[in-house]
Hints:
Belongs to the binding-protein-dependent transport system permease family. LivHM subfamily. This protein is mainly alpha-helical.
Amino acid sequence: MDAIILLTLTGLGLAALYFLVASGLSLVFGLADVLNFAHGLFLGVGAYATWWAAGNLPGAGPDGLGFVVAVAFGVAAGTLMAVLVELVLIRPLYSRTIEQVLVTVGLSLAGVALLQATWGADARPFPRPAWTREVTSIFGAQVPNGGLLLIVAATLVLGAILAFLRWTRYGLIIRAGVENREMVTALGIDVRKAFTLVFAIGGAAAALAGALGSVYFGTVSPQQGGSLLIFAFIVVVIGGMGSVVGSAYAAVAVGLLQQFVNYYGTSGLGDICVVALLAVVLLLRPQGIAGKAVTA
Length: 296
């Protein structure tokens, strides 16, 4: 029983990490119709900015309020990077899908190379609060605090995004734009500002995933964003493109499936099962768990 509780909570921690990355991807594609393969760069920037701030920024550090300051700095850096990417590279390429893919893939590769050139290709120990290296006993299971931190953070981010989409003016514009962007434009609303805002939200969530994911793994590396981006795309497709709630459901399914199969099967089998789940969803429900069916 202890093993089941532990696997469930660690699986939910992994799911929370996937959701933080996938939520921004889902919003960006749903509104702007952009497959952003450079999304992992925002995660890497957030992780390395947090790592740098913890050791160099006045008032920041690996413990207490200093850790909050370091994470806030990382999130701000990731948000700024996302806004710059949208304004400089993506905005001139809306409705040009092939060029978008080429630019974002190229930016992703260049970003990893830049991080490697600046801080090296090897993983570096991540300065994290002492309490995140400890465990909490839950119904007899010793659960790592780093995973619990991810669960709390993802829950708060999900609630904040849903509240923003439901009760703010720009949230309503984004929701309407996801449903029918042409109609929103015809009403005289400048959706370009909404595009930039969506990229900023996605960048902030990815940067937070980079910072807290590094706490979870204990290290930071240039390849970290790319490896998590693969599973984030799987989560977005399973959940339904443009659906934040669908991404949350899919992230839970993917995280739990990986943990349980890897534990009771052989190492790596969980990843294969995730890809198999993706194939089944695409065959039986191509629009995803919470997506809407496309009618001819």
